[in-house]
Amino acid sequence: MTFAPTADPVGGGQSLGPATLADPWGVVSMKVAVLGAGSWGTTLASLLSPGHEVVLWARDAEVAEEVEQEHRNEAYLPGFVLEPSLRATDDPERAVGDAELVVIAIPSKYFRAVMELAGPFIPATADVVSVTKGIELGTGARMSEVVLEVTDHDPGRVCALSGPNLAREVMAGHPSATVLACTDDDRAERLRHALTTGTFRVFTNRDLIGSELGGAVKNVIALAAGIGDGLGYGWNTKAALITRGLTEITRLGVALGASPMTFLGLAGNGDLTATCASPQSRNRHVGEQLGAGRALAEIIDEMHMVAEGVSTTRPIVDLARQHEVPMPISQKVDSVLTGVLSPQEAVRQLMLYDPGPEFDGPLPSG
User: Fold this and answer.
1) In-domain check, residue 89
2) What CA–CA distance (Å, rounded) separates 134 from 108?
3) In which region does residue 99 sit, left (phi positive, over 0), alpha (psi from -120 to 50) or beta (all else)?
4) Is there a contact between 349 and 275 (Cβ–Cβ < 8 Å)?
5) The predicted structure's pLDDT at residue 163
6) Which of 106, 199, 243, 321 has the greatest number of C-beta atoms within 10 Å?
C-alpha cells in the first residue's frame, strides 16, 4: 500500500491515508482482536488492518454488521470508510479465540464486565494492550490490573497504549504519536513495530503505572479546563490548569511508583495538552457544559460516547486521599460533578489555595 494522499473527511484537506504497517522492520502479520467498537477501538482496528488479520468486537450486532458489510461505523466514527479487510463480530470467542494480540478499548466502567466475558477465550500466549484511559470506580485499579485480576495472564504480556490520540485525527491520517508501556523490552520492541504506521508513530517505555495514570488523570484536568471555557476564561486560565494539573498527575504517579519523567512525555504532557485544548475532547466538552450552567445528567444523556473523566474523577480523588497526595484541582472537579460546589464556587475556592513553592518535591534524576 502506498502513502498517496486521500481526502480528509474531517477538514476537507488531505491526509496521508491508511498507512502501511512497519514494513521496513519486516513485521510478520499477526492475528489481532480489538475489543470495543467505539471511536478509538474502531480507529485502531482499521489502522492495523492493512498489515494484520484484524477482528473488531462490538457489543451491538448492528454495529458489527455495519463494519463487516459496509466498512463504516457511523454511530461512533461518522464520515470515515474503514479498511475493507477489517472483520467484525459480536461474538467474543470468535474475536479473541486465536488472537496473538488483543487490544482492549472498553470504557473503564464496563472494562471488568467485558474482560469477564472475553477473558476465558484469550489465549495464554496472546499479548494484551489496554488503550482505556480510566481508573476503576470502587477499586481504584488501573486497567492492566483489572486484566490481571480477571484473566491471571502473564504480567509481562500486559501492556498499555497512551498518548495524544484523538481518534478522528488518527483516522484521517494526521501525523500522530503515542507510547506503548511494557515491562518486557523485547515484547515492547516487537509490538512497537507491529503498531507503528506511516502516520502513527509508537514510542516505548517501561512505566506501565505512569502511562496509565497519565492517561486517566488528564481526563479529570480536561474537565477543569472545560469548566474554565464554559465560564468564559481565556488561555491564561487554561495554561495554569494544564501546568498545575500536570503537577497533580506527577504527584500521584510518583506516590504510586511511577517515574516522574513519564509525565513529561506523550502519556503525560502530550495527552494532557490535546485533551484540555481540543474541541474534539469529550471531557473538555462536559466541563464546558458544566461551566455554562447545565446539569451533568443532561449533558451525559445527550452524549453518544463516554467521557472517562466523569467516572474516573472519584477513584482518582480517593487514591489521592489514600496516599496523602494534594490534588486541589481534581478535588474541586469532584465537588462540581457531585453537586457539592458550583463551578463558580469551585474556582473561588481554588483561588484561595496557598500557592507556596512551585516545585514542592525532589526534581527527577536522570
Assistant:
1) yes
2) 5
3) beta
4) no
5) 97
6) 106
CA distance 147 to 209: 14
Task: Output the average pLDDT for the chain.
Answer: 91
Instruction: Please enumerate in sequence order all residues whose Cβ is within 8 A of that of 26, keeping only pairs 6 or more positions apart, or say none.
Output: none
Output the pTM of the full model: 0.89
CB neighbourhood size of 152 (10 A): 10
Cβ atoms 3, 16 nearer than 8 A: yes
Contact (CB, 8 A) for 273 and 287: no
Asked if 223 contacts 286 with a C-beta cutoff of 8 angstroms, the reply is yes
Report whether 232 contacts 238 (CB < 8 A).
Answer: no
**Residue 299, C-alpha cell as written in the block:** 449533558
pLDDT (tens digit per residue) in 269-314: 999 999 999 999 999 999 999 999 999 999 999 998 889 999 999 9
Which letter does DSSP use for residue 96 in this model?
H
Co-location of 92 and 219 in the same domain:
no
Q: Which amino acid is at 111?
A: F
Based on the fold, state whether residues 238 and 191 are members of the same structural domain. Answer: no
Q: Does residue 185 sit in the same domain as residue 89?
A: yes
User: Which amino acid is it at 150?
Assistant: V
Q: Are residues 113 and 171 in the same domain?
A: yes
Q: What per-residue string of b and e applies to 225-239 under the rule 16 or more CB within 10 Å gives b? A: bbbbbbbebeeebbe
- Report the catalytic residues: 218
The least confident of 26-30, 135-139, 283-287, 294-298 is 26-30
Enclosing domain of residue 139 = 6-206
231-257: per-residue pLDDT in tens? 999 999 999 999 999 999 999 999 999
- Is there a domain that residue 364 lies in? no
